[in-house]
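Hi there, hope your week has been kind to you so far. Thanks so much in advance, here it is:
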Amino acid sequence: MVLRYWEPTARLDRADTEFDRIVTRFFGTAPRAAAGIAPAADVIADGNDVVISVELPGLSPADIDIEVAPRRLTISGERNAAEVADGQRVLARGRRHGRFRSDFRLPAGVTAENIKAGYEHGVLTVRVHEVTKPSPEPVKIAVEDGHPAPIAAVDAE
């Protein structure tokens, strides 16, 4: 006689995997982040701008990397676990730590010159202004302290 452990969530895990496979087939990416943590984000249209707000509490602007490539904006970085002093021990950890990465699809023609980013009160705000000529190489975007101002229209030639 063979004894098997009952796993009440096994069917749910299979359904979750199947859902991810279907989403990937139709949209190209699964809903989870490719590298660890997927921070909460909102994407809002504001006139000719798209504003992306990402919750990244406890980080400094230097901890956040933003890259733009043709039709893609990537926000990534790493949140380290809180240090535990000698004589202390961790009873529970509720805050996530580790690498994070979120990718956002951009309209064709967006260049680094038309993207501004700011970090204030634990929220990264990236403002993307739509233009017409894409850049062929990935470009780093500087993260400034505070909320980014609206971007003046810059048209590609």
